[in-house]
Design goal:
35% of the residues lie in helices and 13% in strands. It has helices at 46-57, 63-66, 72-77, 111-122, 142-155, 174-180, 197-200, 206-219, 237-249, 276-288, 306-318, and strands spanning 3-4, 40-41, 83-85, 89-90, 100-101, 126-131, 160-164, 185-187, 224-231, 254-259, 293-296. Strands 3-6-7-8-9-10-11 form a seven-stranded parallel β-sheet, sandwiched between helices. The chain is globular, with a radius of gyration of 18 Å. The structure holds iron/sulfur cluster. Residues 63-64, 69, 71-72, 75, 80, 82, 301, 303-304 line the site of iron/sulfur cluster (SF4).
């Protein structure tokens, strides 16, 4: 297998003024050389191009591309694209994220059906649907999530659906709309430890995000809940353990831990590259705390291998 060190900047995601206007006055920090264990498959196989063609033909946005995900080569080769709904422009400006910030476009009423058609064309057994933050909408985009889930149920009834949602902060009733649409998995990433929220996720509130996950489980225990952290932002081991405990109190089923990679010099610096053995140790500690599933490795992303992980999660609930 050919592997390369994928430099996210080489994907054309330069520290451009238009893409991240809010970061223009931030100090630059050097992009550290990635260690050898962060190796990814080069995009370009035939199956990769088929996936890209289907995404383009349906006029869809993927987080794989917008976030400059290092796993694109391997995921798209397996037709696993994660769709980002409600446009490519986000109303938040998280310090880790490569998605563009600005004033988003109006919602596209045709998007739910195009997503469903694309998922059917890709033949996905499991799909992950995420979105930009839409603080500009009265419901934060909750109803649009529900429309997408309904369209998927109609066009691809065998496909299980995982939503990776924003926090719906100050959007009264929004979460209820998504829960009522009954996704198979509800994922909301805490992203980092509470002490890092002001510098990493300034528009969000740690305990609000935690409570969001807890409310999903309280309202519909049949929905699997999932959350994830990026490591390497300067958090301590004790802080990570505290977040694990908080997530278990919130009854979250599945934890993902991956290495933070810095998209551009204007983004939050990588404070540490966590060794694979340390990820393995965190996985053991998380499993001991009672998570049904844990995925922890440098290249773990919340949608990476989501289909296979969901199958394992279901099996663990069934006691298989
Ligand atoms: S890990 Fe997720 S975001 Fe990254 S390429 Fe795979 S499906 Fe896309």
């Amino acid at each position: 297998m050919n592997t390369i060190l994928l430099d996210i900047d080489s994907r054309g995601r330069a520290a451009g003024a238009a893409r991240h206007p809010e970061k223009q006055n931030r100090a630059e920090s050097p992009l550290l050389r990635k260690p050898d264990w962060i190796r990814v498959k080069a995009p370009g196989s035939e199956a990769f191009h088929v996936t890209r063609k289907i995404v383009r033909e349906h006029g869809l946005v993927t987080v794989c591309e917008e976030a400059g995900c290092p796993n694109m080569g391997s995921c798209w080769e397996e037709k696993h694209a994660t769709f980002m709904i409600m446009g490519a422009i986000c109303t938040r400006a998280c310090a880790f994220c490569n998605v563009a910030t600005g004033l988003p476009d109006a919602l596209d009423a045709g998007e739910p059906n195009r997503i469903a058609d694309a998922v059917a064309a890709l033949g996905l057994a499991h799909v992950v649907i995420t979105s930009v933050d839409r603080d500009d909408l009265p419901d934060g985009g909750a109803q649009h999530f529900a429309h997408v889930i309904a369209a998927l149920r109609a066009a691809a009834p065998q496909t299980t659906v995982e939503v990776l949602t924003p926090d719906f902060l100050r959007k009264e009733g929004a979460l209820d709309v998504v829960i009522a649409a009954r996704p198979d998995v509800f994922n909301h990433n805490l992203e980092t430890v509470p002490g890092k929220y002001p510098s990493v996720r300034p528009g969000a509130r740690y305990f609000h995000s935690l409570r969001l996950l807890q409310r999903v489980k309280e309202q519909d225990p049949s929905i699997f809940t999932k959350s994830g952290l990026m490591l390497g932002l300067g958090e301590t081991r004790a802080e990570i353990m505290q977040v694990m405990d908080d997530l278990r109190v919130a009854d979250v089923d599945f934890l993902t831990l991956g290495q933070y990679l810095q998209p551009t010099r204007k983004h939050h610096p990588v404070m540490a590259f966590i060794e694979p053995s340390a990820f393995k140790a965190y996985e053991m500690l998380a499993l001991a705390r009672g998570f049904s599933m844990v995925s922890a490795s440098p290249l773990t992303r919340s949608s990476h291998h989501a289909g296979a992980d969901f199958a394992r999660l279901k099996a663990s609930r069934a006691g298989v």
